[in-house]
């Protein structure tokens, strides 16, 4: 297991290419889901410095707050509500350049300006989401989508 991250500068593409092997190393040999989600959130926060990064897990027909990095957050989100609940309901990644323009956005923090949410799949079902918020508008693009989707595929659910 890696004990420290090597933070890489450069394009997003270059940063993700350097970070993904380090995340794999963090997860290697660790069977605990919560520990792995916590380390993924921490690694992303360290590398990119985004405002908020965390996981919500499906429990009893709600998304429930899981491991995260950043200020306190909404604890429960209904299916179809806000960006996270919509990503869960539609089973697809959502990139929101300006959260104020997203219908039904849940403002856990007024400092959040843009967001990307990636659904987590297990046995072809959405079992949670990775939620990433930025304090700047239009922070996320298809490069983030490509690599964040690769990162969540590294999560072992069994």
Q: How many strands, what sense, and barrel or not for the largest sheet?
A: 6 strands, antiparallel
- Second CATH tier, the architecture: 2-Layer Sandwich
Report helical residue fraction. Answer: 25-40%
Nearest-integer average pLDDT: 93
What name does the CATH topology carry? Beta-Lactamase
Globally, the shape reads globular
Strand content: 25-35%
Determine and state the CATH class.
Answer: Alpha Beta
The CATH fourth-level homologous superfamily: GAF domain
- The side-by-side strand order for the widest beta sheet comes to 3-2-1-6-5-4
Q: Note the gap between the termini.
A: 19 Å
Q: Structural class, judged by helices and strands? A: alpha+beta
The ordered H/E elements are HHEEEHEEEH
| Rg (CA only) | 15 Å
């Amino acid at each position: 297991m890696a004990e420290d991250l090597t933070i890489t500068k450069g394009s997003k593409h270059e940063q993700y290419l350097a970070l993904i092997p380090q995340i794999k190393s963090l997860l290697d040999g660790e069977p605990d889901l919560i520990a792995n989600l916590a380390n993924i959130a921490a690694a992303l926060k360290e590398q990119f410095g985004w405002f908020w990064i965390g996981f919500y897990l499906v429990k009893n027909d709600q998304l429930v707050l899981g491991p995260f990095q950043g200020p306190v957050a909404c604890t429960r989100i209904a299916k179809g509500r806000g960006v996270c609940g919509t990503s869960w309901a539609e089973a697809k990644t959502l990139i929101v350049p300006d959260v104020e323009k997203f219908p039904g956005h849940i403002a856990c923090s007024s400092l959040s300006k843009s967001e990307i949410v990636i659904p987590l799949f297990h046995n072809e079902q959405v079992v949670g989401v990775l939620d990433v918020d930025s304090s700047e508008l239009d922070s996320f693009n298809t490069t983030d989508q490509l690599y964040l989707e690769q990162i969540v595929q590294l999560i072992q659910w069994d």
